[in-house]
Amino acid sequence: MTILSNLSIDLTDFTGRILIVSDLYGHFELLLKGLSKLTQSGDEVVVITTGNLFDWGPSPCQLLEAVVYKKFGDRKVHFFTVVGFHELLMTDAITQKYLKTFRYFPDTHTRKHWRSLGGSWHDSYDQILLERDIYKIDYPLVINLKTKLGTYIIGSSDIPHDGGDWNTLMATLNKLDNQNLRIMASNITRTRYFLESGKTIDDISLVVLGVHQPDQLKRILSGQTELAKSTLCLFPNNWDGLSNAPLDFKIRFLDITESEYGSCYEF
């Protein structure tokens, strides 16, 4: 697994469906259900998720295999994701290629910590294949997406935005080394309910985040501020991601194929 500062995806000439999907938490069957309802056999589809892919759910191993080996039935799926808090837990417990001292050991404290927060699924995945497969997926802090209808920023719980120029910020993030990128990722992926910034970014159709929609954003120093109208929180569950997933867990799809602001569907 590689944490990237950002990933730019240009789909201005893409003719298939474009779906942004909330945190999956190991619910591969819900992803397939949504794809079956929103696409047709043989369709080419871009799926972008808001992180937290595998932990707590009923089918994380199947989801990992699908992402790595492109097993999405009879749809041609191009799969992308941003980094979430649970991806950081995962990489704390698995070899990091740039630090050979961080080898994977079956009984390390980090593995136990990951297991306690939903990562026990990895015990049933071949450990050698797990390390190999995890590193076939890149995890950017944010995805900058451009389509023929709009421009979007996709993140997990928040985006590293201080109200300044977005392109300048991206250039600054690109200069960070891997360790500082992990620190930044840790700072912006730990919450499901609080957004540090409600500021609007110029020339962006939507900022799409994988958090639960708050009624208002509580600010320590300035009271309360409205959520920026250009920000959409996709996560449909009133759940903190730190215990067993609710039985009525849902995922939400934002289909931006035919309109700038898209249409939402829950499964």
Automatic annotation (TrEMBL):
Pfam families tied to this protein: Metallophos (PF00149)
Limits of the Calcineurin-like phosphoesterase domain: 17-106
Molecular function in Gene Ontology: hydrolase activity
Keyword Iron-sulfur: no
Swiss-Prot/TrEMBL keywords: Plasmid
Stated name of the protein: Calcineurin-like phosphoesterase domain-containing protein
